[in-house]
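sry for the spam today, last one i promise. struct tokens for design, 133 residues
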């Protein structure tokens, strides 16, 4: 069964603020099909000045706390970049990319269906590594 990729209208470059960017990332991840036991925290990390654009970096950290383990053994991070062109009109929407911790693959929201399994795999791999050390 082919799942529908949910996309949203991203803010334009001239209306962008760091906080509005974080809110839009929150809006976007609210469309992800993840179990409600997952909790997350989003934060702005840094601004990067490039020749033709500005990039704003964010991290969304995920975990599954439980009654028995309210502090999870491991978390999984998803890194977002919001890019604003210095060349294209500021009335165009910002560009958005994201990558999972421990992966170099860059995803675009409009081209990617997020999978909860990605978060589970990151956490399972971290726990396996901790047990080996």
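last one done:
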């Amino acid at each position: 069964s082919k799942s529908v990729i949910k996309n949203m209208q991203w803010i334009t470059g001239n209306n962008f603020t760091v906080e509005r960017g974080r809110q839009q990332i929150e809006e976007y991840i609210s469309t992800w099909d993840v179990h409600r036991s997952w909790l997350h925290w989003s934060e702005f990390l840094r601004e990067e000045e490039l020749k033709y654009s500005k990039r704003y970096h964010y991290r969304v950290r995920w975990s599954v706390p439980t009654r028995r383990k309210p502090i999870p053994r491991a978390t999984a991070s998803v890194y977002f970049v919001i890019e604003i062109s210095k060349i294209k009109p500021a009335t165009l929407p910002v560009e958005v990319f994201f990558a999972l911790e421990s992966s170099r693959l860059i995803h675009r929201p409009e081209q990617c269906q997020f999978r909860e399994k990605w978060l589970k795999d990151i956490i399972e791999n971290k726990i396996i590594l901790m047990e080996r050390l």
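The longest strand covers residues 39-49. ok im logging off now
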